[in-house]
């Protein structure tokens, strides 16, 4: 899978972000995208082939694997990474709209098209809310699908066509558990960064409005 588009998107977002936003971009790029591509993807690459049950009944391993892993961890992480990065396109598109509007009118309409104020501030806040909401949704989804953030060594399966309760073994559970905790931890860190940036921008805008009101009243 090519991640060039996501990399370019993150690079573009970095231009129009606050200091906290740039930290978020660095975390997503270094601790999520690179870790996913360099290590995590290979660990889960053959997860179905390495899932073994102590019986060779045709179809038994397949139904047991599908029951305990209805969606592949790695594919769900890939979807999460794409989805939480996509709201940032709103900011990029809004800046592009400002730039095109200036070209169309052939005059300077904004002090800086990439400055977070006015309508762009609203777009930025919406993107932060969407990113935070998507992060939380995926964490809850992970927890519900896999009955917690854990990788058991052994699972017991009694689903047909298995003739009785069989033991099924998951390969490299410790290694997978380490990466699971790491990726969940970085997801929580991104939520904290998004909420911090959201609070910072709202506080900054509130102070700005308050000072303007005070200045207007003093005249």
Task: Walk me through the structure.
It comes from Erithacus rubecula (European robin). Its main location: other. The chain crosses the membrane at residues 21-39, 77-97, 118-143, 178-203. The chain has 219 residues and is mainly α. The chain has a single domain (14-218), classed as Up-down Bundle (de novo design (two linked rop proteins)). 69% of the residues lie in helices and 5% in strands. It contains 7 helices and 3 strands. The protein has a 3-stranded antiparallel sheet, with helices on one face. The chain is elongated and about 85 Å long. The mean pLDDT is 83.
Element layout with pairings:
Layout: H1 4-15, H2 19-43, E1 52-53, H3 60-68, H4 73-85, H5 88-105, H6 118-146, E2 154-157, E3 166-169, H7 173-218
Helix pairs in contact: 1-2, 1-5, 2-4, 2-7, 4-6, 5-6, 6-7
CATH homologous superfamily (4th level) name: Gap junction channel protein cysteine-rich domain
Provide the number of structural domains: 1
> How many H/I helices?
7
How many whole angstroms does the radius of gyration measure? 23 Å
Q: Major beta sheet, specifics?
A: 3 strands, antiparallel
Shape: elongated
Which class do the helix and strand fractions yield? mainly alpha
Strand order of the largest sheet: 1-3-2
- Enumerate the spans where pLDDT stays under 50 for 5 or more consecutive residues: none
Order of SSEs: HHEHHHHEEH
CATH class: Mainly Alpha
N-to-C span:
61 Å
If classified by CATH, what would the architecture be?
Up-down Bundle
Helix content percent band: 55-70%
% residues in beta strands: under 5%
CATH structural fold name: de novo design (two linked rop proteins)
Total count of strands: 3
| Average pLDDT, all residues | 83
Main location: other
GO molecular function: gap junction channel activity
Keywords: Cell junction, Cell membrane, Gap junction, Membrane, Transmembrane, Transmembrane helix
Domain Connexin cysteine-rich: 134-201
